[in-house]
Specification:
The chain is of the alpha/beta class and about 210 residues long. It folds into two domains: about 80 residues, Orthogonal Bundle (serine acetyltransferase, domain 1); about 100 residues, Hexapeptide repeat proteins (UDP N-Acetylglucosamine Acyltransferase, domain 1). It is about 35% helix and about 20% strand. It is built from six helices and 15 strands. The protein starts with a helix and ends in a 10-residue tail after the last helix.
């Protein structure tokens, strides 16, 4: 499929749904505010594949909502090939999303990601087997998910919680807590009111 056709599809999506532009702006501000490697608003748009992948997913999600499932799957496939980020077009992702480094991100079909969520590379929001139906995690607002964390099954991650790097989460996580380990267990409070904004992954908490 030619680049011009893909551009026309994206332009149609943005002109039809103003929410796409609002979400793109919120994501841009999130990256600028939370990523210490980001020094200009132009950087994510030009160079950061996490930001680029999320915006492409949003076009695919719009296509899915229009019933154009084959085209949405095509966008998902190309995003996975180009950016190494695999987000099912039916997944629901909120605004203010920051995905740092973004390599090997997987978000399943029935996953829900709230607003102002931050996650690092190699995060999986997946299922636990071959079950059908609603089978993926529901991530609350303001959650911080560390590198390599796996959140599996139709479970709820409470608002403003932290998931430590490398954890495997198989059960619900209460709001404003920190979980760590394999399998993950509650190890304390979240440490601050907005973990996804502070981006502090030290388990002893953060100064807020």
């Amino acid at each position: 499929m030619g680049e011009q056709l893909l551009r026309e599809i994206a332009e149609e999506a943005y002109s039809t749904d103003p929410q796409l532009g609002l979400a793109a702006r919120a994501d841009l501000v999130a990256v600028y505010d939370r990523d210490p490697a980001c020094h200009r608003y132009l950087q994510p748009m030009m160079f950061f594949k996490g930001y680029q992948a999320v915006q492409a997913y949003r076009v695919g999600h719009w296509l899915w909502g229009q019933g154009r499932h084959d085209m949405a799957y095509f966008v998902q496939m190309r995003v996975s090939e180009v950016f190494g980020v695999d987000i099912h077009p039916a997944a629901r992702v909120g605004r203010g999303i920051m995905i740092d480094h973004a390599h090997s991100i997987v978000i399943g079909e029935t996953a829900v990601v709230g607003d102002n969520v931050s996650m690092l590379h190699s995060v999986t929001l997946g299922g636990t087997g071959k079950e059908d139906g609603d089978r993926h995690p529901k991530i609350g607002d303001g959650v911080l998910i560390g590198a390599g964390a796996k959140v599996l099954g139709n479970i709820t991650i409470g608002h403003c919680s932290r998931i430590a790097a490398g954890s495997v989460v198989l059960h619900d996580v209460p709001p404003k807590t920190t979980v760590a380990g394999v399998p993950a267990k509650v190890v304390g409070e979240a440490g601050c009111s907005q973990p996804s904004v502070m981006m502090d992954q030290v388990l002893k908490g953060c100064d807020c």
